[in-house]
Amino acid sequence: MLETKVILEKQDLRNLKWSTSRNSAGTAGSFLKSYSKLGGRKLYYKLSNYDSIKGVIGIESVNEIIVDRLLTLLGVEHLHYQLIKADIVVDEKQLETFVCVSEDFKAKGEDKIPLDNFYDVEHKSGEDRLTFCLNKGWEEYIYIMLVVDFLILNRDRHGANIEVLRNRKKRTIRIAPLFDHGISLLFNCNTEEEIEKYDILADKKINTYIGSNSAKENLNLIPKDKLPKFRGITENDKEYLFEDLQSVISPRMISKIWDMIYSRWRYYEDICNSRE
């Protein structure tokens, strides 16, 4: 398993070949992905939002490492990431940027299936998406996911950003650890002015496979006696969340992201306390 960390010593990743994955949340630009095999391990690489004229313009890769650390604090099973400063080549142009890397979370013999495809094939008549997942025994996972997506305002939990892992030989099915949190937090703030004006508790429209387009309203899908209990976060955790990121994103961005996470965490705590 990859150790969650930021590698500031520049690496040479110019050998990677990048393919385009269009952003389903509607922002301009493209999200480029690549992979390699190293010592028997398959590694996946992602760039932040890329524009063919401006280059890499987003912070989605940085968000992955922040959310990785947040989920570690909360005690939530998830995919781990590294953030690597690197030279890459895109469109025959060499760029210096930060690349997000993760390992394959499939076990030997497992195939991965997007949840939307799995649901289309397996659901019973009249069984909605949430009920389907609960009937499969994924209740705790789904409720945790809904809370996490509220805390970070994940805008892109579509049906392929939740995966089912199946081993046909062993006849086992499990749901993959939480992954792909780049389009969250302040991903669409590209200037200091936009950061300053950003409303950290705003209930912005999200793209989600389970629930409504409101991350806040989706918390109401969780019965009061099923609200997930987490390890919790405190003001002292800010240093851990942003360790080695001071040279990657601006101080104002760091401050605003922290305020967003911590304010939303306190909002969730208030919900838990009010339902007791």
Protein model, in words:
This protein is an alpha+beta fold and 276 residues long. It has 2 domains: 5-103; 111-274, Phosphatidylinositol 3-kinase Catalytic Subunit, Chain A, Domain 5 (Orthogonal Bundle). Helix content is 29%, strand content 25%. It is built from 8 helices and 13 strands. The chain has helices spanning 60-74, 115-122, 129-135, 139-151, 192-197, 215-218, 238-241, 251-274; strands at residues 5-12, 19-22, 30-38, 41-46, 50-51, 55-56, 81-90, 93-103, 111-114, 156-157, 163-167, 172-175, 207-208. The protein has a 6-stranded mixed β-sheet with strand order 1-7-8-4-3-2, with helices on one face. The protein has a 3-stranded antiparallel β-sheet with strand order 9-11-12. The N and C termini lie far apart (38 Å).
Largest sheet, if any?
A: 6 strands, mixed
Instruction: Report the end-to-end length measured between terminal Cα atoms.
Output: 38 Å
Number of strands: 13
Shape: globular
Total domain modules: 2
- What is the number of helical segments per DSSP (H or I, 4+ residues)? 8
CATH architecture of the largest domain: Orthogonal Bundle
Low-confidence residue ranges: 22-28
Strand order of the largest sheet: 1-7-8-4-3-2
Q: What Rg is obtained from the alpha carbons, in whole angstroms?
A: 19 Å
- Helix proportion of residues, in percent? 25-40%
